[in-house]
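Quick one: sequence plus calcium ion SMILES, need C-alpha cells.
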Amino acid sequence: MQQVAYCLALGLFVLIMGIHCHPERPNIPVDPVAQAIFQTAEANRTPDGFLTQEEMTEIFQRFDMNADGNIDETEFIAHWTLLKLGDLEHAVTLFHRADTDRNGEISKNPDFARLFYYFDRDGDHKIAESEFLAVWYSLST
Ligand SMILES: [Ca+2]
Ligand SMILES: [Ca+2]
Ligand SMILES: [Ca+2]
Ligand SMILES: [Ca+2]
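Reply:
Sure thing.
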C-alpha cells in the first residue's frame, strides 16, 4: 500500500515538474503551405490578421473552378497543383477531411459551414492566423 502511495506521489511530482518545466503549450509546427494560404486569402480583403466568412468564401470560390457551388476532388487537386501547394497526398487527405458528410465533394453546406465553425476555435466569427494554422495542422496529420 505504501509503495502505491509512493508511486502516486512520484507520478504527481513528475507531472507537476513536467508542467512547470513546459509552461507553454507545445508549439505547433508552422506549415508554410497553410501560412501561404492564410496570408493570400487575407491580403485580398481586410488584411487585419483574421479571415472572415467573406474571405473564406473567396477561398472556396477559387477552388470551385466550374462555379457549381461544390468542390470535387479533381477541382481541389487542380487548384492545389496550380497554387503549387506541394504534396498531393497531403491534398487528398485534406480533401477527405474537409468533405465532412463524405459525399465526394466539399459543398458550402454542410462542409464549408462546418469547416468555418471548426476553424473558429474561440467562436468570435473570424479565424485568426493561429487558429487557422492549428486546425490545418490537426487536419493534415
Ligand atoms: Ca481579414
Ligand atoms: Ca465545382
Ligand atoms: Ca460533402
Ligand atoms: Ca476566432
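The mean pLDDT is 85. The first strand starts at residue 50 and ends at 51.
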